[in-house]
Amino acid sequence: MNLRAGMESFFNTGIYGITAEKVSNGRNNIEVVREMLDGGIKFIQYREKEKDALSRYEECLILRDMVKQAGGVFIIDDFIDLAIAVNADGVHIGQSDLPPNVVRKMLGNGKLIGLSTHSVEELDRANELKKYIDYIGVGPIHATPTKKEAVPVGFSYLDYAVKNSQLPLVAIGGIKEHNIDEIIDAGVKTVAVVSDIVGADNIKNKVQRLRKKIFPDIF
Ligand code: 3NM
């Protein structure tokens, strides 16, 4: 299947879920992703920088099948080799990873590529690269312990991205149930939430409440 052609339907679910076992209150990634899918998330990103390659591979084989069965897309953060090895649906890359045209060549045409941006210049450049990439990450909106080194981009950059992006946007960084409204009000339709979801007592309920904020009529 060429995911790139039908990608809008995955963005329609509003919340982009990302794994982070370190802050998931003792639950493993399999349990966490199960609940995310049960809550209705269709976009799952596997982000685990500290495990070894074999552990990541074995976990991703299971997660890929779970996400596929739920009709979602399974994206891997950073590790292009892992994405190819488990036939994931795509990768998410940052500004210091391999260039998008090279990643596109490695992955082939049917897979998804997301690119993080943090400034007007990076957004403009991402637009120029739009034949290689599928969506643009914008963040961190707020300072966040999940990515301590990242400097918040603020709302003026978010507004610029909403007005000027030629691809779907995913906002990320310090976004939680209590402050997601300001992101939605800025015009963002897909929001990535890490710690507020994986650390929630009841992940499924949390996801449903977050989705309801974006799409008040879905339940
Ligand atoms: N990427 P939380 S911010 C993984 O700005 C990640 O590109 C970011 O975690 C970026 O929802 C971030 O817990 C962490 O704040 C987001």
UniProtKB/TrEMBL annotation:
Name of the gene this protein is made from: thiE
GO CC, any one term: cytoplasm
Family: Belongs to the thiamine-phosphate synthase family.
Cofactor binding remark: Binds 1 Mg(2+) ion per subunit.
GO molecular function: magnesium ion binding; thiamine-phosphate diphosphorylase activity
Binding site for 2-[(2R,5Z)-2-carboxy-4-methylthiazol-5(2H)-ylidene]ethyl phosphate: T144, P145, T146, G174, V194, S195
Pathway named in the protein's UniProt entry: Cofactor biosynthesis; thiamine diphosphate biosynthesis; thiamine phosphate from 4-amino-2-methyl-5-diphosphomethylpyrimidine and 4-methyl-5-(2-phosphoethyl)-thiazole: step 1/1
EC number, as in UniProt: 2.5.1.3
PANTHER family in UniProt: THIAMINE BIOSYNTHETIC BIFUNCTIONAL ENZYME, THIAMINE-PHOSPHATE PYROPHOSPHORYLASE
InterPro entries in the record: Aldolase_TIM (IPR013785), ThiamineP_synth_sf (IPR036206), ThiamineP_synth_TenI (IPR022998), TMP_synthase (IPR034291)
Signal peptide annotation: none
Name this polypeptide is given: Thiamine-phosphate synthase
Pfam families noted in UniProt: TMP-TENI (PF02581)
GO biological process, one term: thiamine diphosphate biosynthetic process
